[in-house]
Amino acid sequence: MLIRLLCLGVVAATAGCATITRGSNDVLVVNSTPGAAQVKMSDGQTCTGTPCTFKVPRKSELNVLVTKEGCKPQQVRVTNRVASGGGAAMAGNIIAGGVIGAAVDAGSGAMLELVPNPLNVALECRR
After folding, report:
1. Which of 21, 28, 46, 63 is the most buried (most CB within 10 A)?
2. Is the Cβ–Cβ distance between 19 and 110 less than 8 Å?
């Protein structure tokens, strides 16, 4: 009985709500080759020269347009998936009986990660 209680205590201590441990936002990094390209995201955020970083909700799905004078514009879709750390936190919620925590994590997107991240774009430029 003591071993079971000890194991349950370890699970409870290491399993945290993903919303608290990971947060509902992520940092999206956009790089380009060549550098110093402009970035415009479908949520309205912009950057005047790569590399750029953007704070984005983890449950986002957006289009990222990378442009540079003399180069062909590239548009890339950024989506999300369940992250290994987010899945572990969700499993911890379920094991510890935290139905409310699991619902919050699912609603906030905290168990997700953006993909691809970092976003590396190779522009085709005239020479």
Report:
1. 28
2. yes
